Amino acid sequence: MTPTTYTSRVFALETMDVPGATETILRGGRHLLSLLPQAFEGVGRIGVLGWGPQGRAQALNLRDSLAGTDIRVTVGLRPGSRSAADARAHGFTEEDGTLGDWLAVAADSDLVILLIADAALAAHHEEIFAVLEPGAAIGLSHGFLLGHLRETGGDFPPGHPVIAVCPKGMGDSVRRLYQQGAEVNGAGINSSFAVHADPDGRAVDLALGWSVALGSPYTFRTTLDSEYLSDIVGERAILLGAVHGIVESLYGRHRLAGDDEVTAYERSCENVTGPIARIISRAGLRAVRESLDAAGRDVFDRAYTATYPPAREIVAEIYDEVADGTELRSVILAERRLGAGPMTEIGGSPMWSAGDRVRARRAGRELPVDPFTAGVFVATMLAQVDEFAERGHPWSEIVNESVIEAVDSLLPYMHARDVAHMVDNCSRTARLGARRWGPRFQAAYEQIAYPAAEGPADASLVAAFDAHPVHEALAAAAKLRPSVDIAVV
């Protein structure tokens, strides 16, 4: 079981009641920024290596939060990086020493945050480790490197704190909600933190300070192992891969039933990213079913109970393949095969041609929840929740990785851009996983779930959903929800 309690010499902590336990959490907010110099004691320079979505967002948030202190944030990029121009456009320059070669920045930093692509980190981490100053802290926002080190027999260098702060949302969300929080205290993306090595006893406050500086409304504890498993599995399941499989299968089902392209898109993709996501975000999972009339609940129940068993089987399979290194090896092999070349896109399937027409007619329309789509989506989400619970993940991690990150970060972007855009523009690790597992969900639902949904609902599964402890855990987490919704333009 992942430990969930911790203490801080800098920040006032709270406890949150979750099913069967309590967890220690840090409630964030801009009123805590004055404490950052204490949290970052011994750190004069933070080096952020990489300028992808997370690198950009975290460098900017850290710089803004630490403005007026003696702590400098510097971006490190590989020679010839195409990202250098954008970093300069955002105010990081060679002239003032805030932009430089990645190894030079790593060598000159007291906290080195590794936000380069997973495959690049797997290939070059030894070079980075070799230049670190004694005692410099190593920061991660993902457990991928830990998995790679274990696969290859490597390890983090001794004598260095190794910490992780993992925002439960995409980089653009991390930055956008932080900016919205300039006027609304507490707006941001929740984060988990982990301490993997703590040779000098300062790692917890270092991680908490990093999370506060990113704008996290609340921060909860995990381990690097647990974060890696939940994050990689979630990308392939309800956060991305399963969403792709769900909407593709539902669109095809509605088209076969006689719906035109726009209606089929609205009943599938638009429903998931719009009304279903909004209800879950504001009122929880049970509220989706409760929003339906009696006939709609019957449809929901049949879809839910037909979908849950195959969904749970696939999520369990994903978890096993992540845990035993199979999924990591598939990513590394794919990166070697593809090199730096472009990946083919999924957005050419027939359903995506209707997206622009649907978005063009949103104004003034309140799309109702489609009960069948709702049942399929909620069942898939609960399948991931139950798999994580059975594997021993803490409730904060379960609800953030399975529910909150989906409805408050990713689905709003999918609503604005469409699901295909997200699959084709996420990190390469997530993109590879979604492309591998999305079709698995699609096939299982078309071949197993949807035919079974023609029969009566399984009353025991419906009762289990109604009494599920996730509702209590989500209600506790909702008390810490930011007071603003992300604005995607």
UniProtKB/TrEMBL annotation:
Domain KARI N-terminal Rossmann, chain residue ranges per copy: 26-226
Binding site for Mg(2+) 1: D231, E235
Span of domain KARI C-terminal knotted: 223-365
InterPro entries, per the entry: 6-PGluconate_DH-like_C_sf (IPR008927), 6PGD_dom2 (IPR013328), KARI (IPR013023), KARI_C (IPR000506), KARI_N (IPR013116), NAD(P)-bd_dom_sf (IPR036291)
Pfam families (alphabetical): KARI_C, KARI_N
Keyword field contains Magnesium: yes
Keywords: Amino-acid biosynthesis, Branched-chain amino acid biosynthesis, Magnesium, Metal-binding, Oxidoreductase
Residues that hold Mg(2+) 2 according to the record: D231
Cofactor(s) annotated in UniProt: Mg(2+)
Pathway note: Amino-acid biosynthesis; L-isoleucine biosynthesis; L-isoleucine from 2-oxobutanoate: step 2/4; Amino-acid biosynthesis; L-valine biosynthesis; L-valine from pyruvate: step 2/4
Family: Belongs to the ketol-acid reductoisomerase family.
Name of the featured protein: Acetohydroxy-acid isomeroreductase
